[in-house]
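Example record used in the benchmark description.
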Amino acid sequence: MSPVRVSRATWIIWIAASTVVSCIHPMSPQAPIPTVASGRSRDFQIAVRGSAVWPAKDLRITFLHVAQDSRCPVGGMCGWAGNAVLQMSANGTPFSIRVGPAGPASDPPAVVEQDGFRYDILRLEPLATVGTGPVDPASYAVLIRVTALP
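Model output (structure tokens):
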């Protein structure tokens, strides 16, 4: 049996299509934000080095900084969507949380449960843009969903 031959044009189309699909990031500004049950969950938009307070639950969440950001830039051709690692704290207790798909086994989780709350990152902005260089660390903002666990 002879090997199957694939034309160069077919390979180029396959590589281009897979690159475009891999750069669609679940945390992009176009991604819809899932709905939540009222009362148990709240969404907070927090700028880097800023805090948000949920008085009814006696909770203060602080977005300390972005430790790592390898997300595919807008206009980029990437082999995978990349991810970002955020350093946060809840009532002074620090935790790391990941935005985007898992990378190395040492990556932090995408969802953190701590001290009776669940933390989900819905969006991290901005994304870098090809040709403009890296994101200014002071410009980050996170949209985080906090759910009080039963």
